[in-house]
Design a protein that fits this description.
There is one protein chain. It is built from 25 helices and 18 strands. By secondary structure, the chain is an alpha+beta fold. A 5-stranded antiparallel sheet has the order 4-3-2-1-8, with helices on one face. It has a 5-stranded parallel sheet with strand order 10-11-12-9-13, with helices on both faces. Strands 5-7-6 form a 3-stranded antiparallel sheet. α16 packs across α19, α17 crosses α18 and α22 packs antiparallel against α23. The longest helix has 23 residues.
Length: about 625
């Protein structure tokens, strides 16, 4: 099976699918599309195409233009700006969309083989959501229209849940399904882009003849916008100039009388106001209809001020829609997902824990990290053929040393949508851990703390990259809010985006600010200061801070901790020049010996412990 964007070409059954909706194609247009898809990225001349499809038969080249026109209508392709079929004048055609091998479920085949079915139980960890959607389908059968918003972070499984719900409703109601993708940037250029994609699918589906007739009668402007003429000659359509939302609502309601109708809007955060107004009208109309709107949107891209949020909140308040907010998968669901992807019930020990911790339950991140482990040979089959079991062949990597490139490519576009100031604030925040205080961001960027806190608060309201996590009282009596990244991988990508010199400057400024805030009590934060100095490559100050932290640990009788800190400071001292290293190594080794002695004699007479404490106090 070949996949390109949301389409799948089923060469075994000779049919075309978009998401889970089958699109009827006559044999010859299917053959034309198949030849193009199987030869992507190269010029296919008119003669080559004619010889391949009509061998030893003379066919007028004009027939190709007719088939290409039909295919473009079905695919929603614009010849002036082609996404799929590019015409090369007087030469031929080229299929320009990337083509991938897909499994029978429609997902791009992962690195690990798969052997699962296309039924809704593919959607792991979403049993409650599917039960709720099944209840809505039962109400739909009684003529109660439904509007459902499915939201959550990118990669959380919104599309998978909607596809499973459509599969469930089609099985229950024999419903017709049509979907449209809202595309970033197109909303300003092409009004009703996703709506027109839905109508094209409906007109090309099993109910296409009925849909075309109803549109011609009740919403002729919408049919005209598809570039189609009414197939019934005795219809005298009204004005075809203005696409009135009310006309389309009535037409869709009429179509749903014969067969339940499911309209899917993907990525509604990119829809324009006109599309949102149409959805609002469909949700608010009181005419009974076996009609459901399923809409997905990313909470990372729809800010609190987005008109979609306003629409959704108003519909929820009036009980005219429901919202399903998808949370991260539980660890048991991650394990189930891995078992399915690897096609084996028993997965390598510790794999589920490792991937759950680093993905934080995001299924898209789980699968991307799994592919990374396979590509880097941390996971390999026990034998060469595809039937072998997957086993761990090397210790799992520390993801803090970097993020798999596949995930960088997923996260980067989200970051680039922010303005430069917001990006710099988040980059500075990434110098801390997943949770960070606003004062540290201000220190790293040398900005006013109050203004920085306001900027962080604005980011938390707008972007969903971070959220407010509370506030803390500083030693000088002032209060500072602190925030948390929505996902640890966002922090990692933001950290790696910065140059080494910029990161170093930020780390040093944060460490110095820590020292200033805790002046006279630096021992309490010495370990954290050491972390920043080490990240900045300021080895001398890092060694000094580690020794200070070790002395503080000794005073608390945490002798094992003191020894670990001193061992680490010895390792860092290796980066110093010979003269500095020779002096410091002897001092650190003496301190380390005394820490180890203290560990061994902790229960010995008090006078020996006092002697050891006296050594530390004198250093």
């Amino acid at each position: 099976m070949k996949q390109f964007e949301s389409f799948r070409l089923d060469t075994s059954n000779e049919c075309l699918w978009q998401n889970r909706v089958q699109i009827n194609l006559p044999p010859k247009p299917f053959a034309v599309l198949r030849y193009l898809v199987e030869n992507p990225g190269r010029l296919i001349s008119h003669d080559e195409l004619l010889d391949a499809l009509w061998p030893e038969t003379y066919v007028q080249p004009q027939v190709l233009r007719t088939y290409m026109l039909d295919l473009r209508k079905i695919l929603g392709d614009d010849p002036a700006c082609p996404r799929f079929i590019q015409t090369l004048p007087k030469r031929g055609y080229c299929f320009v969309a990337p083509v991938m091998e897909a499994d029978v479920a429609g997902a791009t085949a992962p690195a690990a083989s798969k052997s699962h079915s296309t039924v809704p139980d593919e959607v792991v960890g979403r049993e409650q959501e599917l039960i709720r959607l099944k209840t809505l389908a039962e109400a739909l059968a009684c003529g109660q229209r439904q509007t459902v918003f499915v939201t959550g972070a990118n990669g959380i499984g919104k599309t998978a849940l909607v596809e499973a719900a459509c599969h469930q409703m089609v099985a229950m109601l024999s419903a017709s399904v049509a979907s449209g993708q809202c595309v970033e940037g197109l909303s300003k250029k092409e009004e009703y882009y996703a709506v027109m994609e839905i109508l094209r699918q409906l007109c090309a589906s099993a109910v296409g003849e009925t849909a075309t007739r109803i549109l011609a009668t009740m919403a002729p402007a919408w049919l005209a916008a598809l570039g189609r003429e009414p197939e019934v000659s005795n219809i005298e359509p009204r004005s075809t100039q203005l696409r009135a939302p009310g006309d389309l609502c009535r037409a869709l309601e009429e179509l749903s009388k014969e067969k339940a109708l499911i309209l899917v809007f993907e990525d509604l955060q990119w829809a324009n106001d006109s599309t949102l107004e149409l959805i609002s009208a469909l949700a608010r109309r009181r005419t009974p209809a076996k009609l459901v709107v399923l809409a997905t949107y990313s909470s990372h891209c729809a800010s609190a001020e987005h008109p979609l949020r306003t629409l959704k909140q108003d519909l929820v308040m009036h009980r005219q829609c429901i919202e399903l907010v998808l949370s991260p998968l539980a660890k048991t669901a991650v394990r189930q997902l891995l078992s399915r992807e690897l096609s084996q019930e028993a997965i390598p020990p510790g794999l589920d824990t490792y991937l759950y911790q680093h993905s934080e339950g995001n299924p898209l991140f789980v699968l991307a990290l799994l592919r990374h482990l396979i590509c880097e040979h941390f996971l390999r089959r026990e034998c060469a053929d595809s039937s072998g079991r997957w086993e761990q062949r090397a210790p799992f990597p520390d993801m803090e040393t970097g993020v798999p490139q596949e995930l960088v490519q997923l996260i980067d576009p989200e970051i680039e949508r922010l303005n430069p100031t917001e990006q710099r604030i988040l980059e500075a925040a990434s110098l801390m851990r997943v949770v960070f205080p606003a004062w540290a961001v201000a220190a790293a960027l040398e900005l006013d703390p109050a203004e920085t806190e306001e900027a962080c608060d604005k980011l938390a309201r707008r972007s969903c990259f971070v959220h407010r996590a509370g506030h803390d009282e500083l030693p000088d009596g002032t209060r500072s809010d602190f925030y948390a990244f929505a996902h640890g991988l966002y922090r990692e990508v933001l950290y790696q985006k910065q140059t080494a010199s910029r990161r170093a400057k930020g780390h040093v400024r944060i460490a110095e600010r820590l020292g200033g805030l805790f002046a006279g009590r630096e021992d309490n934060v010495a370990r954290e200061m050491a972390m920043h100095y080490e990240a900045a490559g300021n080895w001398k100050r890092a060694v000094h801070a580690l020794r200070t932290a070790a002395r503080h640990a000794h005073q608390r009788q945490a002798y094992s901790e003191a020894a670990q800190l001193l061992q680490h400071s010895l390792a860092i001292a290796e980066y110093l020049n010979d003269a500095e290293r020779n002096v410091l190594e002897g001092e650190i080794q003496s301190e380390l010996d005394m820490a180890r002695t203290a560990m061994e004699t902790k229960k010995q007479p008090a006078n020996l412990s006092e002697e050891i404490d006296g050594f530390w106090m004198g250093t």
